[in-house]
Amino acid sequence: MSLVESGWRQFTFFEKHNVCDPENPESKFSGLKEDEEGVNSLVKLWQLDRVEKDAPFCVRVIRVCPLLGIGRSTRACHVALHSSLRHIAVGFIDSSVIYSASNIIKEKSGKWLTVVDGANSGSGDEVTGLCLAWLAAQDICVLYCLTSTAILSFSISNKATINRVEHDAKGCLRDCWSFSEVNNQLIVGSTEMVYFYEAEQSAAADPDSGKGRCHALGRSNEKIQLLALNNHVALLTRQPTSIPYSSELWTYVVSIYDVEGQCVAFSCAVPAVSRMFLLDSMFMVLTQDGTLSAFTEKNISAKLDILFKKNLYDLAVG
């Protein structure tokens, strides 16, 4: 299905240009790795603005495998850290998920809650994503757990799980989701649809709390990666090539959707093995040959000019 068949009009509201490799480190960064032989996953928290011995200073190391219980040696595969540094979750390859609510830096012996026990009640699927939403007014942390077959959310209060919700998106790949702490919104790219979940609705104890609004973005094309910025969603998809006699079987396409305006704001083909990321409120694409491209949104005057040339006065006024 082409972009036009999705029912959304297509425009060129973004400009693509190549740039030099920039640097913009954040103040805190957490990651998972295995520095030791065997399965012994470590969560490390670095303070990037503090450099010692030509490397960022490591403020905390957490050995996570023993936290699952005696005799468990399951490899960790995902970590989520809230910006307040008071909520952290770790996911494992057997669908297990553990969570802690404490000052991650100061409290070295904070208690951990087993949210999903992969050995007994989990699906057994590898965790492909975790994100944390803090609802201060309700004193609830909403923990989203993503696997290839399911999207679950857990409402946690007073270090106990008080609600579990299974959402209507049937899982997603590791790079096909995005979460914003600003509005506590999770966006999930499944095979056919892109779903939008609000943390406050996910925390509600009603039958519809697992349902999210959805749009048929990138439908019938294999989704490789999803990014979100404000009201825009960018998808990197793979689809069969439409160029006759081409030696390439697949075409990789970057598409930027304006969800609020319900239109395709930009679309172009890119070389294979590309990677999208966000930098300074811009969509960036790094290709296999080392080319770094930035996608910048056109100003309102340029957008209006495009709409007027297409005689789309109703959209211009709206």
In which range does the helix fraction lie? under 10%
Major sheet: 5 strands, mixed
What's the assembly state of these chains? single chain
- Kindly report how far apart the N and C termini lie: 28 Å
Q: Please state the structural category.
A: mainly beta
Question: Helix and strand succession?
Answer: EEEEEEEEEEEEEEEEHEEEEEEEEHH
* Tally of helical runs: 3
Shape: globular
Annotation, overall tally of beta strands? 24
Mean of pLDDT: 83
Radius of gyration: 21 Å
Low-confidence stretches: 1-5, 20-29
Spatial strand sequence of the major β-sheet: 1-21-20-19-18
Fraction in beta strands: over 45%
Explain the layout of strands and helices.
Elements: E1 9-10, E2 14-18, E3 28-33, E4 42-52, E5 55-63, E6 76-81, E7 87-92, E8 97-101, E9 113-116, E10 127-135, E11 140-147, E12 151-157, E13 160-166, E14 177-180, E15 185-189, E16 194-198, H1 199-203, E17 213-215, E18 222-229, E19 232-240, E20 250-258, E21 263-270, E22 275-279, E23 282-286, E24 292-297, H2 300-309, H3 313-317
Organism: Gongylonema pulchrum
Subcellular location: Late endosome membrane
Membrane topology: Peripheral membrane protein
Labels describing this entry:
single chain; 318 residues; mainly beta; 3 helices; 6% helix; globular; disordered N terminus; zinc ion binding; RAB3GAP2_N domain-containing protein
